[in-house]
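User: Predict the structure for this protein chain, please.
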Amino acid sequence: MTRRVLDCAVQHHWVPNGVLGLESNLCDQLQGLGSHPNQRNVLSKLSFLLWSIWKVRNNVIFRNEIFKPLVCLVPAKKASAEWLIRSCISVDDYFKGPSSTPSSTNIKLVRWYPPQPGVVKVNFDDSCINSAAAGGFILRDWRGKIIKVSAANYGLTSSLVAEARALKDGVLLAVQAGYSKISMEGDNVLVIQAL
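Assistant: Here is the predicted structure, written as structure tokens:
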């Protein structure tokens, strides 16, 4: 199973050919990646690939699913891309590549930062269409573990009210769950300051 998935990853140019041979100890080979020119990238991709193989293997055994190498590769590529986006991109500005417009445009990429240990963070936002508003929040701990996610339809109201209610709902749930150290993050400073 592992060999077929690795062959598929090589065929799709996701990992270099010959990175892992299955005839020797896998742990020794992973440690030996230190000599590979692109070691961190390759090791990261292999980690996601091995995790995906494990999950698919369990589905084959316990759910009688049919094994297909692409069923391992696609989620591994997706998880790897998400990891890169969430962990490697900072809030720093960067320039887009060459464009057809005369000047380059600054783009600000934003990533989620965890709160201090022992603190939970409430991220909140709203959405309004034709005066109909909805809002939601996500409550995560300092390890990034999701504690609670919720969204609600607030009916005909303003964006400001929807943001405030989403934040209130998130903070209320955090307090009810026993958390006293709460960090708040959203795109409406007025709502945060008011709370």
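The helical segments are 2-11, 26-31, 39-63, 69-88, 159-176, 189-194.
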